[in-house]
Amino acid sequence: MGQNFHTSWVASVTQFKAAQMNPAIQYLDRGITYLKNVIVHCDGVVSWKKASNLLVWSGTLRILFNRDDGLAIQNTVVAANVSLSDNQFAYVDLSETNNAVLTVTAASVTTGAASNFLAFNRLVLGYRNTTSDEYFPVALRLTDLSKVVQVLTPANSITVDWSLGSTAEVLLDRATTTFAFSGAHDGQRCVLVLLQDGTGGRAVAFGGEARAGTDLSLPPTLSALNKTDYLGFIYRDVGGFYDFVSLSKGF
Q1: Strand ranges, E, within the chain
Q2: Is domain 145-248 in CATH 2.60.120, yes or no?
Q3: Amino acid 24: pLDDT
Q4: Peptide bond into 154 cis (omega under 30)
Q5: Strand partners, 177
Q6: How far apart are CA 112 and CA 79, in angstroms?
Q7: 83 phi, psi to nearest 5 deg
Q8: Where along the chain do its domains lie?
Q9: CA distance 51 to 242
Q10: Using CB atoms within 10 A of its CB, is residue 221 exposed (0-12), middle (13-18) or buried (19+)?
């Protein structure tokens, strides 16, 4: 919060006159203001990619707060990512300029030393711990991927980034569409929704990261024209495979 007001403010002598106390009170007021009513939201999806140590936001971050003069101020951060190592937190230093563009930075916590996460104007977004390497939100929570449906553009080859949502759907409008998978976290359940167009008879193919067991075949035979099929996968960090675990057809 700026200067330390537990020690003498002027010339090593504690003074209580308004002229001496007012600067301290102003700093205190600003500090309290910045600690209240901060709103952080994202235009896209916020996800933690544990395997690559990345905190990712797919759209602009928008940070709203009250400036010390009472005005509502917005700061933004463009879609990007930041790498977090063990015992590191992600933060931004707020700007009093409306619509200022900020950068997310990572820093380590050192106990028994001066705090670097309670610095004036500093907003901590989240922290990565040292045991499970998980992300713990402070001001920036992760998106519930189970509630996000990705609508993919038809193409000969499609890469599905499952960190953007656990359900992905696409209209099959060509003979064969080849899928590649990436971005899932360990244990994530991923649903691929395949819609046949009015021609039907469309087929799919998959990369080596997708595999089937003994009771299901991959790729499966799909339904006829204008029908919808649901393919379920579970991602496992061990081996990096997307296991094909369910098939429901003909909707």
Answers
A1: 39-42, 46-49, 54-57, 61-66, 72-77, 80-83, 88-93, 100-101, 105-108, 122-128, 135-137, 149-151, 157-161, 167-172, 176-182, 189-196, 203-206, 210-212, 228-236, 241-248
A2: yes
A3: 67
A4: no
A5: 204
A6: 35
A7: -90, 130
A8: 37-137, 145-248
A9: 15
A10: exposed
Nearest to 2 by CA among 22, 27, 33, 36: 27
Task: Give 157's contacts (C-beta < 8 A, 6+ positions apart).
Answer: 177, 178, 179, 180
Task: State which amino acid sits at residue 4.
Answer: N
pLDDT tens per residue, range 160-215: 999 999 999 999 999 999 999 998 988 999 999 999 999 999 999 999 999 999 99
Closest by CA to 224, choosing from 185, 191, 245, 198, is 198
Q: Are 117 and 88 in contact (CB under 8 A)?
A: no
Confidence band of 21 (pLDDT split at 50, 70, 90): low
Predicted TM-score (pTM) of this structure? 0.76
Residue type, 241: F
Identify the CA nearest to 146 among candidates 191, 106, 81.
191
**Residue 177: count of CB within 10 angstroms of its CB:** 22
* Run of H or E residues at 58: none
Which distant-in-sequence residues (6+ apart) come within 8 Å of 147 by Cβ?
none
